[in-house]
Amino acid sequence: MDVKKIYMDSDALLEGHFKLSSGNHSQFYLQSAKVLEDPKNAAALANGVAIQIQDSGLEVDTICAPALGGLIAGFALATALNKRSIFAERVDGEMTIRRGFEISVGEKVVICEDIITTGGSAMEAARAVEAMGGVVVGFAALANRGFCDRQNSEITKKANCKLPDETPFFALEDFTFEMYTPDECPLCKEGKSEAIKPGSRGN
Ligand code: ZN
């Protein structure tokens, strides 16, 4: 499966001059919601992750996605694995499991995102699952931003990856592109464009 092509064809991998939420600048931006607006893409990508999880022999009871970003990917992965699908959401800044979702003691949960960057939200969802007695047995994402080391990839974990070493992380593709502080940004130095916030033009 050519994941990059699926992203490009869906205008989900944008090229330009972007200001990321971290304040850093980048020539590329990933907008996973765009790739998932076609349910066939969501199903195909999630199926690819499901195959990796099944091949690893990992036992899973439930998929839990941090809202909002992980919702569609999590539901699609749960569908592919024929497992329960729940989500965690932020309430007053804290990732919480609500909506009457229950987790039994020892229930094996995979945390699923659309894209894992440093894994911060995924870890917050993992703590919420563990607080209810669940066991986080894996992390999953459709794509990896290159900070964490997923299964079957040569990528080395960066210092800012928050996922634990002992828990497997499954994803289909590494999207590793450079980020620059505004002072060091070569696109700023070129002076032909100003960094824009993705979404600042209504998307
Ligand atoms: Zn710049």
Summarize the structure.
The protein has six helices and ten strands, in the order H-E-E-H-H-E-H-E-E-E-H-E-E-E-E-H. By secondary structure, the protein is α/β, with parallel strands linked by helices. Strands 3, 4, 5, 6, 7, 8 and 9 form a seven-stranded mixed β-sheet that branches. The chain has a three-stranded antiparallel β-sheet with strand order 1-2-10.
Overview of the structural elements:
The chain is α/β, with parallel strands linked by helices and 203 residues long. The protein has helices spanning 3-9, 32-36, 39-56, 71-81, 120-131, 186-190, and strands at residues 13-19, 25-30, 62-66, 84-91, 94-96, 108-116, 135-144, 169-170, 173-174, 179-180. It has a domain at 36-176: Rossmann fold. Helices cover 29% and strands 27% of the residues. A hairpin with a 2-residue loop joins strand 4 and strand 5. The longest helix has 18 residues, at 39-56. The radius of gyration is 17 Å and the shape is globular. The structure holds zinc ion. Zinc ion binds next to helix 6.
CA-based gyration radius:
17 Å
**What is the succession of H and E elements?**
HEEHHEHEEEHEEEEH
Question: Got a strand count?
Answer: 10
Averaged pLDDT: 93
Could you tell me the CATH topology label of the domain at 36-176: Rossmann fold
Fraction of residues in H or I helices: 25-40%
Beta-strand content estimate: 25-35%
